[in-house]
Design brief:
Layout: H1 14-17, H2 23-55, H3 60-80, H4 91-108, E1 110-112, E2 115-121, E3 124-126, H5 128-146, H6 154-173, H7 178-195, H8 199-217, H9 221-231, H10 240-254, H11 266-270, H12 279-311, H13 316-340, H14 359-376
Antiparallel strand pairs: 1-2, 2-3
């Protein structure tokens, strides 16, 4: 991706050189804050029945999510006001820490929902695979910028990225979490393409990755059940087919205007994980098509303007970083929504800024802060 820089002449009048925030920056910031506010309300509506049954407190899950949102906003403001170039020095350390975190969770992680994905630290837990997403974007952006004159060298660029990516994807697949592994691979390929790595190098990786992903999807009973629930939901309607069917039915019940806040059925056990994986189904039922599309528009605003920011970033590192963050959000939104709409198999991937969660929400906010910092420094 070619970086476009428009320097301001030194003799430009002060009233033209000192301008306020760009419309792109303001629109992205407003969209992110509105998404987190919407997510807070959605988690309250989606988690209340389960919180009453499991914890005896209707606001237990909501209270924790509100705490995470507060931390996420503070993290957003911190990264927003810190020059994105200063993060380059932390890229190697973050890559190592994220990889070791995946090894640690394999050894002593907590099991939930059939997967070993979390590390417990007393009152809170951490999901290392979410840290890997941020480390991958930051690390690859820094690596490709340093080697931008060797992009046609397989041994200098393509091979090192592929080896590290294969290691982390294998560790995540073994959790098991094939969905996150696929997202990481898509982010890496997208960033390499944006940087200018030749298509003749990326095509074999893409083809090999698709073939390997198809083989791995049928290699374990866990993933086979997910695929069976997608292709033939009636075969196991009370198991894997239940999730694939009920999300779509919840959206259909919402109609155009929805059932109204608190008037839905999805959160009362009709969909699995209503506050995380299927929070969009809960919102679609209660807010209807109009409300659900409003959320999609806000997410699309962040992604599209993020890609535009990448085109006009002040330097190559900023361009690659903005590209990686935007691709990250784009792929994760597609995977989550396609699972709810039964266009693709369910993967257990959260909806950025909306779903309940600590690690994912905070790191999404940190990434958005970096994207906004790049936009603020872009002409």
């Amino acid at each position: 991706m070619k970086t476009v820089v428009h320097p301001v002449p030194a003799n430009e009048p002060p009233d033209r050189r000192l301008t306020g925030p760009s419309w792109r920056y303001v629109a992205m910031l407003a969209s992110v804050l509105l998404l987190m506010l919407t997510g807070t309300v959605a988690v309250l509506l989606a988690s209340t029945p389960t919180a009453i049954v499991q914890q005896g407190d209707a606001f237990a899950t909501f209270g924790r999510h509100a705490t995470w949102v507060t931390i996420a906003v503070l993290a957003l403001l911190f990264t927003l006001n810190r020059d994105y170039r200063s993060w380059r020095r932390w890229a190697p350390t973050l890559v190592v820490v994220a990889t070791l975190g995946l090894v640690w969770v394999k050894v002593s992680g907590r099991v939930g929902g059939g997967s070993r994905r979390w590390l417990d630290f007393g009152p809170f837990n951490v999901q290392p695979s979410e840290i890997v997403k941020f480390a991958l974007v930051l690390g690859i952006a820094s690596f490709l910028d340093q080697r931008r004159y060797f992009l046609d060298r397989v041994d200098r660029v393509t091979l090192p990225i592929t080896i590290w990516l294969a290691v982390v994807c294998y560790l995540i697949y073994r959790q098991p979490d094939l969905g996150t592994a696929v997202i990481l691979a898509c982010i890496a390929l997208g960033m390499m393409w944006a940087a200018g790595v030749p298509v003749k190098h990326l095509a074999p990786l893409t083809g090999g990755g698709l073939l390997l992903g198809a083989l791995l999807a049928f290699s374990t009973p866990y993933h086979r059940d997910r695929l069976t629930g997608f292709f033939n939901p009636s075969e196991n309607i009370e198991g894997a087919g239940w999730q694939a069917s009920q999300g779509l039915l919840s959206l259909a019940r919402g109609g155009l205007r929805g059932t109204g806040l608190g008037g839905g059925h999805a959160e009362w056990g009709w969909v699995a994980a209503p506050d995380t994986d299927f929070v969009f189904a809960v919102m679609g039922e209660q807010l209807g098509l109009l409300g659900a599309m409003s959320v999609v528009v806000l997410l699309g605003t962040v992604i599209v303007l993020g890609l535009r920011t990448a085109q006009a970033a002040p330097d190559v590192f900023g361009s690659l970083l903005a590209s990686g963050i935007s691709i990250w959000f784009l792929i994760q939104v597609i995977v989550n929504l396609f699972g709810v709409l039964r266009i693709a198999p369910i993967t257990g991937v959260t909806l950025p800024f909306i779903s309940y969660g600590g690690t994912s929400l905070i790191l999404n906010a940190v990434a958005a802060g970096l994207l906004l910092n790049i936009a603020r420094q872009t002409e």
